[in-house]
Design goal:
The chain has eleven helices and ten strands. Helix 1 (8-19) packs across helix 8 and helix 7 crosses helix 8 (294-303). 32% of the residues lie in helices and 18% in strands.
Length: 355
C-alpha cells in the first residue's frame, strides 16, 4: 500500500476530485447555520411533564421559543417539543431528555429559523461542569468534521434558558446546540435519502466512506454502522445515508457522545467489537471499497491538522481540563497517522472483510 507521505500531492489531488464535487454544488444551510456565532433564546414548555413522560411519540404543543433578532426586537415563535434519542433518553443516564423542536412554517419566515421545519437540540444530560464538557466536546467533533468536508451536519451553539410553563419552577440556563435536519442536509448537498434497513458496502462511495471511517477512528468512535440501521429503521446507525441513483452512497455521521476523545462516564463500546473501553481506538473501515481511498483520507486529515488543533485550543466554552484531554487524544492519533509502520499496524491491517 502506498503511503500518504510518498506522494502527498497526488493523494490530495485525488481526494479533491472525489470529495469536492458535492462542495461545489452545495447550497446554503439557511440563516441559522450561516456562521458559528453563539445565539441565545428562551424555551418555555412543560418540562416537568416532558422529562417524566419521555414518550417519543408525543408532541408538546403550546411551547414557545423567544430570541432577540438582529434589530434587537424580541421574537416569540410557537413551537412543539418532542423527546428523542436512545441511550440519553433513559432516566438513569440523563436527567434531562434530549429534544426535537418542531416549528410553524408561517411564523419562522424571514427569521433566524427560516426554512427550519424541525431541529434536534442537544442539551445537557445533567447540569454540572463535567456534562457541559461532554456537550461541548461533542459539538466540537461535529465542527471538526465540518472542517474536513461539506458532507457533514452543521451545528449551532446556543445558550438556552429553559422556562417551565406557568413559572412553577426556577428557570435553568445552560449551553446546547442545534443539529442540521437530515432532510435539509440532503437538499443542501443535492442528494436523496437512501431508504432500506441494510446497504451493501459495494454501494458506498469509497472516498466519503474512507473519510468517515478514518475520522471515527481519529475521535475514537465505534458506535456507528454504515451498513445497517437500528431494528427496522432506515440505514444507518448514527449515520445518515445519502446518494443519487447510479452513484455511490455517502454516509454522514452523527451522535458522537460515545467517542473516546470525550470519554463520557456512561459510554460503553458496542457489543462484539472487541474492545472494553471507549478510549481504545478501533478502526472499523472496510478493506474494500474504502481502502482504495484511505491514503487520500489520511492526507486530508493530515492537511487540516493545524485547523483541527486550533478549533479545540480556541473554544472559550471548553474547560481547560477537557481541552487538554481532547488535545492529548488527538496527539495520539497523529502519532499513528504520521508513522507509516504504526498506521499500517493500527489501521490498514485492522480493516474488515477480504483484503
Amino acid at each position: 500500500m502506498q503511503t500518504a507521505f510518498l506522494k502527498p500531492c497526488l493523494y490530495l489531488f485525488s481526494a479533491f476530485l472525489c470529495l469536492t464535487t458535492l462542495t461545489a454544488l452545495a447550497k446554503t444551510p439557511g440563516p441559522l447555520f450561516a456562521n458559528n456565532d453563539l445565539i441565545r433564546f428562551t424555551l418555555e414548555a412543560p418540562f416537568k411533564k416532558i422529562n417524566r413522560d419521555r414518550n417519543k411519540e408525543k408532541l408538546y404543543p403550546d411551547s414557545t421559543l423567544t430570541f432577540e433578532d438582529e434589530n434587537g426586537e424580541q421574537v416569540t415563535l410557537p413551537v412543539q417539543l418532542q423527546v428523542r434519542g436512545n441511550s440519553r433518553l433513559a432516566k438513569e443516564t440523563c436527567r434531562y431528555a434530549p429534544l426535537r423542536i418542531h416549528f410553524d412554517k408561517t411564523s419562522i419566515k424571514d427569521t433566524l429559523f427560516d426554512k427550519q421545519k424541525k431541529l434536534k437540540l442537544v442539551i445537557l444530560c445533567k447540569k454540572n461542569s463535567t456534562y457541559q464538557d461532554y456537550l461541548m466536546q461533542e459539538y466540537l467533533i461535529y465542527r471538526m468534521f465540518n472542517i474536513l468536508t461539506d458532507s457533514s451536519f452543521k451545528v449551532k451553539i446556543a445558550e438556552v434558558t429553559f422556562l417551565e410553563t406557568g413559572g412553577s419552577k426556577k428557570p435553568m440556563t445552560s449551553y446546547a446546540f442545534f443539529i442540521e435536519d437530515k432532510k435539509r442536509l440532503g437538499k443542501r448537498l443535492g442528494l436523496d435519502t437512501i431508504r432500506g434497513n441494510r446497504i451493501s458496502y459495494t454501494a458506498l462511495d469509497p472516498a466519503p466512506l474512507s473519510l468517515v471511517t478514518l475520522f471515527q477512528y481519529m475521535v475514537g468512535n465505534t458506535d456507528y454502522s454504515v451498513l445497517k440501521g437500528e431494528a427496522e429503521e432506515d440505514c444507518c446507525h448514527n449515520a445518515k445515508m445519502l446518494g443519487i441513483e447510479g452513484r455511490g452512497h455517502t454516509p454522514v455521521p452523527y451522535d458522537f457522545d460515545f467517542s473516546g476523545i470525550i470519554g463520557a462516564s456512561y459510554a460503553v463500546p458496542p457489543e462484539g467489537v472487541g474492545i472494553q473501553n471507549v478510549r481504545t481506538r478501533l478502526y472499523r473501515g472496510f478493506c474494500k471499497p474504502d481502502m482504495v481511498s484511505l491514503d487520500s483520507s489520511r492526507a486530508i486529515i493530515q492537511s487540516h491538522k493545524e485547523a483541527l488543533y486550533a478549533l479545540l485550543e480556541a473554544d472559550p466554552l471548553l474547560s481547560n481540563r477537557a481541552r487538554k484531554k481532547s488535545l492529548k487524544y488527538l496527539d495520539s492519533y497523529y502519532k499513528i497517522s504520521e508513522d507509516d509502520k504504526k498506521f499500517e499496524k493500527s489501521v490498514v491491517k485492522k480493516c474488515r472483510g477480504k483484503k
